[in-house]
């Protein structure tokens, strides 16, 4: 960035960092002691900023080489490059969006005392305010010829070497450093904001209403998952962190909010890997008088609109440069039909458990708390899932694994449920909702039996939800989609990169 390129430093050792911190703390103390002389101390409350670095770059984009604009600006940014020479010093200041501008501090403009203080007190990582004329250097670099400068926030720890890529653990554990050092990290935050804004815009255009439901619940439900458990001192009772908002959103539909959605935080006390996080963002939506086909249409539109918001089209470019097409109409395949085709044998809801066990054993599949539907789903994942390339809705699931889903209108033993697979992982799921309170109670009782048998993911019997259903819920379609996974589908990144501050040990 500067007219003279500095030598690239190596990463400091822990001992060197400790020594640098001690030196920087001394500089901090001096800035505080000499606040009136050095412009407000180490952490002034306010600075005479007139514009931003991105605005300066946009406004003076046409300035010629070695040319002065005649205009004075006051900007602030973090020092990410620093080069001190005899009578002329250079610093690259970076704003929050990654935009940079060169600050040139010369003896002729600031005087001997100010130049000496710059050399003694300014370090990489400091936030600085500079004021001066906008110019271009002899190499055409847009710069500010500094007439006044102040430390805006003294950094007492040195930045990592910005010439070297941060390791994954550093990026995840110290995301603030990742945001300073890496453009992709900043882009991830912006892309996520664009996706959420797009989702809300699409829903609003279709007449959906956004609501909020409780994160702390007296019983967990709405999904088959192991919950986090906590205790309320105020109520002296055990509570659960939400695993899904489903049962509350359905109560809203009962109450007459016929198109409803929520973008929420869910918590599941389960494993963590490249596609799972114990805390994650989830979108759920319910549409009265729809079914699992209409909600699939809605889901496709939501995702395609979000892709366009980030990439400008339905063809997205992942972080590794791969292009992935989210456009067009997506395939819809039957779970039982595609599994039968893959293994060369017809599998139906009537296939004996003994045969499913044989097929699972041959595939090396082991299942805790086995039921026929779990075997079918695991066999499908083993034989079919890996061959899916384009976005695909996998339709019609086993009844015994989906206790909140309406039975299929024409196929016994099957429910009207789909899972959407993109990039090889499950991105969303959708149902024709079960709204019959009598059948729903039977399903809950069956789940309670599984829980009594030791299944930690089985649902509890929710009497308040059943009571709401007894007042009448219209036929509805519902869907749930992980926001983190949606970002994975659009960006090609792993889940820990799409979450700003993921949970780590």
UniProtKB/TrEMBL annotation:
EC number: 6.1.1.6
Database matches in InterPro entries: Aa-tRNA-synt_II, aa-tRNA-synth_II, aa-tRNA-synth_II/BPL/LPL, Lys-tRNA-ligase_II, Lys-tRNA-ligase_II_N, Lys-tRNA-synth_II_C, NA-bd_OB-fold, NA-bd_OB_tRNA
Binding site for Mg(2+) 2: 426
Listed Polar residues bias regions: 1-11
EC primary class: ligase
CDD domains to which the protein is assigned, alphabetical: LysRS_N
Cofactor: Mg(2+)
GO molecular function per UniProt: ATP binding; lysine-tRNA ligase activity; magnesium ion binding; tRNA binding
Cofactor note: Binds 3 Mg(2+) ions per subunit.
GO CC entries: cytosol
Protein name: Lysine--tRNA ligase
Keyword Chaperone appears in the UniProt entry: no
Similarity comment: Belongs to the class-II aminoacyl-tRNA synthetase family.
Location(s) in or outside the cell: Cytoplasm
Superkingdom, natural source: Bacteria
ATP-binding found in the keyword field: yes
Oligomer and partners: Homodimer.
Any one of the GO BP annotations: lysyl-tRNA aminoacylation
Binding site for Mg(2+) 1: 419, 426
Aminoacyl-transfer RNA synthetases class-II family profile domain segment(s): 192-502
SUPFAM superfamilies linked to this entry: Class II aaRS and biotin synthetases, Nucleic acid-binding proteins
NCBIfam families recorded: lysS_bact (TIGR00499), PRK00484.1 (NF001756)
Main localization category: cytoplasm
Region span, Disordered: 1-20
Reaction catalysed by this enzyme: tRNA(Lys) + L-lysine + ATP = L-lysyl-tRNA(Lys) + AMP + diphosphate
């Amino acid at each position: 960035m500067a007219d003279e390129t500095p030598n690239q430093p190596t990463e400091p050792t822990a001992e060197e960092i400790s020594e640098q911190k001690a030196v920087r703390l001394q500089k901090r103390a001096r800035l505080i002691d000499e606040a009136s002389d050095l412009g407000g101390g180490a952490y002034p409350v306010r600075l005479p900023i007139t514009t931003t670095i991105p605005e300066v770059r946009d406004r003076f984009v046409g300035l010629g080489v070695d040319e002065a604009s005649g205009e004075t600006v006051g900007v602030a940014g973090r020092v990410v490059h620093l080069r001190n020479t005899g009578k002329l010093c250079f610093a690259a200041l970076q704003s929050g969006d990654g935009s940079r501008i060169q600050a040139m501090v010369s003896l002729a403009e600031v005087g001997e005392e100010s130049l000496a203080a710059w050399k003694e007190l300014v370090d990489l990582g400091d936030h600085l305010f500079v004021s001066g004329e906008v110019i271009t250097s002899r190499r055409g670099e847009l710069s500010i010829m500094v007439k006044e400068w102040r430390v805006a926030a003294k950094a007492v720890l040195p930045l990592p070497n910005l010439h070297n890529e941060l390791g994954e653990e550093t990026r995840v554990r110290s995301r603030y450093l990742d945001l300073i050092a890496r453009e992709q990290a900043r882009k991830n935050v912006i892309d996520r904001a664009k996706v959420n804004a797009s989702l809300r815009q699409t829903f609003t255009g279709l007449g959906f209403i956004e609501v909020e439901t409780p994160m702390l619940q007296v019983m967990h439900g709405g999904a088959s998952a192991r919950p986090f458990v906590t205790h309320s001192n105020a109520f002296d009772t055990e509570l659960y962190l939400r695993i899904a908002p489903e049962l509350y959103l359905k109560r809203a539909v009962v109450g007459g909010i016929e198109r409803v959605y929520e973008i929420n935080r869910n918590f599941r006390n389960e494993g963590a890997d490249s596609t799972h996080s114990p805390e994650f963002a989830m979108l759920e939506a319910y549409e009265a008088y729809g079914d699992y086909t209409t909600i699939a249409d809605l889901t496709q539109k939501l995702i395609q609109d979000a892709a366009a918001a980030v990439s400008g089209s339905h063809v997205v470019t992942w972080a590794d440069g791969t292009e992935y097409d989210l456009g067009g109409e997506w395939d819809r395949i039957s779970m039982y039909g595609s599994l039968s085709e893959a293994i060369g044998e017809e599998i139906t809801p009537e296939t004996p458990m003994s045969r499913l066990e044989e097929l699972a054993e041959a595939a090396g599949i082991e299942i805790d708390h086995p039921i026929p539907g779990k075997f079918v789903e695991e066999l499908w994942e083993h034989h079919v899932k890996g061959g899916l390339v384009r976005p695909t809705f996998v339709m019609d699931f086993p009844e015994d694994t989906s206790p909140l889903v309406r039975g299929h209108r024409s196929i016994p033993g099957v429910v009207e449920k789909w899972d959407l697979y993109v990039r090889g992982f499950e991105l969303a799921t959708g149902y024709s909702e079960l709204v019959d309170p009598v059948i729903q109670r039977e399903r809950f009782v069956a789940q309670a039996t599984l829980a009594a048998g030791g299944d930690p993911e089985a649902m509890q019997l929710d009497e308040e939800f059943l009571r709401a259903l007894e007042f009448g819920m219209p036929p509805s379609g519902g869907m749930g989609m992980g926001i983190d996974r949606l970002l994975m589908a659009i960006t090609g990144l792993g889940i820990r990169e799409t979450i700003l501050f993921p949970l780590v040990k």
